[in-house]
Amino acid sequence: MGHALATMAHALTTMTHALATMAHALATMTHALTSIAHALATMTHALTPMAHALATMTHALTIMAHALVRMTHALTTMANALATMAHALATMAHALTTMAHALATMTHALDTVAHALVTMAHALATMAHTLATMTHALTPMAHALVTMAHAITTMAHALNTMAHALNGTYCGPCLSHNGPYFSYNDPCLNPNSPCLSHNGPCLKPKLLRPMP
């Protein structure tokens, strides 16, 4: 029995030692878990401001994204406006080019008109000079015709006087130098007048007859 009790005592001692070891192990585990919990709490405490910072950054990036969208829209509007301005300027440039071409055409036409007017003025001056020359030439001709008319009138007056002397006829002042012979409306210029008629007494000495 003593041996059995000794064995039991040894077994109990071993069990006690084992339980003490287990208790020490549990204490070590508890300490380790406490350290882990403390570390997790510290990490959680550190991650909380990081989460706030990330949320703030996300909010800021969202605002920036909205701003970039607005800027893109504004730049698109500006690009469209610049394209419209470029088209308008191109249209204006084309219109100005057309106007310049029209003005050049008008200038050429006016130059042609001016040249034509100068040519016409030169021609009119030449015509005026020619007419003056003709007038200068016609003046002595007119004097010569007046002299010839005076001579013919004198001859007619002489013939009429001869006819009057031969047959007693006299055509009167129709053939007188100072008489109505020179009047345009005088009846003596009428072809049917007895003084100037082809069959009248003044032009047909052989058919002379007294004046009525």
UniProtKB/TrEMBL annotation:
<keyword id="KW-0732">Signal</keyword>
<keyword id="KW-0812">Transmembrane</keyword>
<feature type="transmembrane region" description="Helical">
    <location>
        <begin position="48"/>
        <end position="69"/>
    </location>
</feature>
<keyword id="KW-1133">Transmembrane helix</keyword>
<feature type="transmembrane region" description="Helical">
    <location>
        <begin position="81"/>
        <end position="104"/>
    </location>
</feature>
<protein>
    <submittedName>
        <fullName>Uncharacterized protein</fullName>
    </submittedName>
</protein>
<keyword id="KW-0472">Membrane</keyword>
<feature type="transmembrane region" description="Helical">
    <location>
        <begin position="116"/>
        <end position="138"/>
    </location>
</feature>
<feature type="signal peptide">
    <location>
        <begin position="1"/>
        <end position="18"/>
    </location>
</feature>
